[in-house]
């Protein structure tokens, strides 16, 4: 049996955080605590035990957030703040206490009962990625409370040996949070998703991660040597017991990754000008206030997309106008030159917000989301617009509307904005009158009237994530149909070209702020289509600057012309890959 375990084996999975690593396997078997035994106990004693468990959990979560803010960035700490919000939710504690009093049972049993009800509620509300993450957070909180009640010490990744590649079914965000990044070389999960919180953390920490690696726990034995390659492609490979040749290849891939990272880092913050003098703007997409400073560190001088819904998503109650004002002011002050584009609330779809979008819809992505939701909740919308206009006194902010469907929606939004300006004038409130406005193009009906929209605003920004979903009729979160969510679909590139031309005809700037805008394969073609701005996750900025600066505009125009002639996404992908490989060769990377 023992010799068998040394046979070289290869598993494949999905690349959830890019990189190459080798190390020894550290297996984390599923270690959820067993179902708690329910026993009768006096309510006074049990409420006291519950309250001690909660107090301890709050302290633990605060410790995690403190240690995280410095290592993994604020969006990681944000995950634990949201767990703390669950813990501090008086409804949850109130319901557990009520069960203890009504049934005279132990705190563990009461907690289990209430958490089960909540889990069901979340899952019934909407079966989507956002709610799955909320359930993951709830389970994480539940396990923590249970451990505290039972006096069980947390089995964490805290004590992993150096050079570990952790193999698990799935991980809770707190598992990854507590790990010492200098000891962790990689993550291999049998389950998991590239959109999960754990994947966000891994990417923030620069740790390669593979998800959906079927059979990993069964096939990898503890301590065995593992090579994980998630460098270039969407698929990732995990080699167990690599032979000498595979190890040599891994070493050279690690060298390659290190060299590339070093070379690309030099381009962070560099101006995006092609060799033959064509210039465009590169900017960052941010999700939470805490992402602003790291974006600056990654070389961003402008925020092209500030997803304001992150201020609303996890909060039990929507942020007030003043809280929003503070958040937008921070953005304005941190980006005094380039400024920030504040996208108004893009709730609904996969992003339900308390008090706004809790109605169950059969097709939430085709329902009340984005601007539609703002127009039916003008009180929220007005408060947000007021907050942005006031904050723009402190730096250059712009307003952008998401999910514009056509001229009537845009005109309705602009009319409300005018009313808000008048209100501020009447009230003598200090604000910036010159804030410019843009519309997102992410719905085909908007793309087809882009010129009419462009005449009414200062800029258009193409949201390719939703545009692709609506053009290809493929739910962006439905794993079962992901092969139809074709990011290189001819329809996507042709629509982008059409929108750019429509905008330029009337002197309106056109940018791309969906994932395609930061995709190294797509960037040269987008530049060739005369896109004025590419906005992307800040960690992609250096690569984007390298692609622009080391390429020529005429080559990129040729590439985009070739792309626009194609009828099949596979051919487009091949063309883009060929260009990319050539550029890597030319740069000696
Ligand atoms: C998009 O749809 O491309 C976009 C940028 O918006 P979001 O991903 O937030 O829906
Ligand atoms: Mg969108």
List keywords for this structure.
Enzyme I, Chain A, domain 2; alpha/beta; disordered N terminus; 589 residues; binds phosphoenolpyruvate; Glucose Oxidase, domain 1; seven-stranded mixed barrel; TIM Barrel; binds magnesium ion
> Which class best fits the helix and strand makeup?
alpha/beta
Give me the side-by-side strand order of the main sheet: 8-9-10-11-12-13-14-15
Characterize the biggest β-sheet. 8 strands, parallel, barrel
The CATH top-level class label of the largest domain:
Alpha Beta
Instruction: Tally the helices.
Output: 23
CATH topology of the largest domain: TIM Barrel
Give an overview in words.
Helix 2 packs across helix 5 (129-150). The longest helix is centred in the first third of the chain and has 29 residues, at 43-71. The chain has helices spanning 43-71, 74-88, 90-103, 107-125, 129-150, 173-178, 197-205, 216-219, 244-265, 292-297, 309-313, 321-334, 371-376, 378-391, 407-427, 444-447, 450-454, 464-471, 490-505, 523-528, 541-549, 553-565, 569-586, and strands at 9-17, 19-28, 164-168, 184-189, 209-211, 225-230, 235-240, 281-286, 303-307, 340-343, 397-401, 437-441, 459-462, 509-512, 533-537. The protein is 48% helix and 14% strand. It is globular and about 75 Å long. Residues 1-5 have low confidence and may be disordered. It has three domains: 9-30 and 158-263, Glucose Oxidase, domain 1, CATH 3.50.30.10; 43-150, Orthogonal Bundle (Enzyme I, Chain A, domain 2), CATH 1.10.274.10; 268-587, Phosphoenolpyruvate-binding domains (TIM Barrel), CATH 3.20.20.60. It is of the alpha/beta class and 589 residues long. The protein has an eight-stranded parallel beta barrel with strand order 8-9-10-11-12-13-14-15, surrounded by four helices. A seven-stranded mixed barrel has the order 1-5-4-3-2-6-7. Bound molecules: phosphoenolpyruvate (PEP) and magnesium ion. Phosphoenolpyruvate (PEP) is lined by residues 305, 307, 346, 442, 463-466, 513-514.
